[in-house]
Design a protein that fits this description.
- By secondary structure, the chain is α+β, with helices and mostly antiparallel strands.
- It has one domain.
- It is 30% helix and 14% strand.
- It has a three-stranded antiparallel sheet, with helices on one face.
- Helix 1 packs across helix 3 (49-62).
- 17% of the residues are buried.
């Protein structure tokens, strides 16, 4: 459910335009994993089961085969952090350890 939620947030930010996915994902300071020291464009080997599952889910989300479980969210954060921007948005749903938000 969490992977679907993050994928849906990405698509909501990209306004469901496939050409906008990479600009959304790699925009500065948007997703913590894109600022890792190793190459953020690298990925696990094709035979890695987790990577295969992530690719399958991404394709299903892009093709509109998965419901927006975030209720239109464009932002999220883990429970353990309290970003200042969270008050500017409406909380839509909590999934696992993450809180999702949409514009008011």
């Amino acid at each position: 459910m969490g992977q679907i939620a993050v994928g849906t947030v990405t698509m909501n930010r990209a306004k469901w335009d496939v050409k906008e996915i990479c600009p959304v994902v790699y925009a500065p300071k948007q997703f913590s994993w894109t600022s890792l020291k190793k190459n953020p464009h690298s990925h696990p080997p094709a035979h890695d089961k987790s990577w295969q599952r992530a690719q399958e889910l991404a394709n299903r989300i892009i093709n509109g085969e998965v419901e927006d479980v975030t209720k239109g969210a464009t932002y999220f954060h883990a429970h353990r952090v309290k970003p200042g921007w969270r008050h500017a948005f409406e909380r839509t749903v909590v999934i696992g350890n993450h809180i999702f938000y949409a514009s008011r």
